[in-house]
Design a protein that fits this description.
It contains two helices and 13 strands, in the order αββββββαβββββββ. It is an alpha+beta fold. It folds into two domains: about 35 residues; about 140 residues, Sandwich (Immunoglobulin-like). It is rod-shaped and about 130 Å long. It starts with a helix and ends in a 10-residue tail after the last strand.
Amino acid sequence: MTTTKKAAILISALAVIAIIAVGATLAYFTDTDAKQNVFTLGKVSGTLTEDGSTDGTKREDGGRDYTSITPGKTLSKVPVITLDSNSQNAYARMKIEYTGLTAPQIAEFQGGITLNPGWVLGSDGYFYYNTVLKPGDTATIFNTVTIPTTWGNEMAEKSFSMNLKAELIQSDNFTPTKDTAGNITSWGNVTIEAAK
């Protein structure tokens, strides 16, 4: 082997050793680090109360019993939705269902209810509040109900129930259906579940 070849092999061997040494040195200067990212989801929760109602007798379930009422009588009935202080901003709606009345009687009874400003009856039978509630905010759908003056003896001693159900949905990243006047008329096909 010639001296030039020996020198080339020696230089190549030294270069390989140098590369390995540098690579090993670089391995000692590397580092790894991990970060844990915690995501905590908010919630939407609130209550439906009738504490402001002054007529009738308060029931254990928070509702009211009205007795010996007569046609034309206006009764205090103040259903209030309150968004909890630890809730996310939310839209509110209310469903009112009746038992013990026919469809025409329901229509007459609902004629004696004056909705408070901001509430609109949607095409799906829900009453929608058109302002986003913030934590601690309240929304009162109405303050009184008036018994229809058209009700006569056919209604004597008749009992019926007005069942109220409040529902809330997050306002962030949710777009309700609105009419041409900008009033909320539907939440679409959403399923409302009780908060945990």
